[in-house]
């Protein structure tokens, strides 16, 4: 039996469908034609789309529409038939991306044993889930051998290489190219703001820490931005709009990018904070909006360096701090080089970390079937 008369209504170039659950979907005709799931419109082997929307007129409309249960059948002017399952369309409305829990100075990253993170799928799955929610975890009891970060590739990788080094050494170095190679305090920042796409995940591996001081500091940049957005929407907007130059270089390397400090997606959700006081270059003073930008930047710096934003802890030899670097800033307090302090950094990409979690869950579901 079809319920097309009462459950399917044509409104201009949109089909309004009332499913058996009572939920209503408004489906544009071009959308309906483009997403046809048939063997002619898809590469069956890979389920990739093969149909190209420009092969039909922009004003295409179905000749006939019928709804049987939640099975929607459309017949197009050339006789092509498209069938949709209402539950499949309803599932498209569900959003699972973008969930994150803000934190402040009271936060302390969850800790997981390094070996178990590599060997135990369910522990790795829990750790990555926590990482995506909070933007920071610590892997502990890792080997203190240089290059250990390479072994995180199966879980987080591949390594995102940037210039200077594949694995970066951070220790006091009179010839170093960066403030990190001194003993002075490092304000919260993310690395390689001088790339148009800075690394989105950073792992900081403490090999040895026998210096006095040098506590690690992390800040939930997105939490700070959310506060700023509430208090001063105009400041937030200025940070989204003003392009800011960043540079990191030495004799053999030159990296440079110009981009706003804050980026949002089309729905206004935060995507990334780019913040590095040490790498920021001089703005052209003649560009319109410098005054507005600086007022906003002043407020942002105040919030990012405030005590109530700084989660503070000590990294000992064998600890690896992993941060979602487009959200969480890292820094350290000044230290007295009374003993050796050696850290190594490597970078990964959040897309790959997310995909590892999907694959882990898929594998887990198969094991439990
Ligand atoms: Fe850094
Ligand atoms: Zn088709």
Q: Any ligands, ions or cofactors bound here, and which?
A: fe (ii) ion, zinc ion
Principal-axis shape equals: globular
Over the alpha carbons, how many angstroms does the gyration radius reach? Answer: 26 Å
In the predicted model, the low-confidence regions spanning at least 5 consecutive residues are: none
Count of helix runs: 10
Rounded mean pLDDT is 94
How many extended strands?
Answer: 24
Please give a structural write-up.
The chain has ten helices and 24 strands. The protein has helices spanning 4-7, 29-34, 86-93, 114-119, 121-134, 153-156, 221-231, 233-241, 290-305, 350-368, and strands at 8-11, 14-18, 24-28, 42-43, 48-49, 64-68, 71-75, 81-85, 110-113, 136-140, 168-170, 186-189, 201-209, 212-213, 216-220, 244-249, 254-259, 262-264, 270-273, 310-313, 320-324, 328-332, 335-336, 341-348. Strands 9-10-21-13-24-11 form a six-stranded mixed beta sheet. It is globular, with a radius of gyration of 26 Å. Fe (ii) ion (FE2) is lined by residues 180, 189, 191, 330.
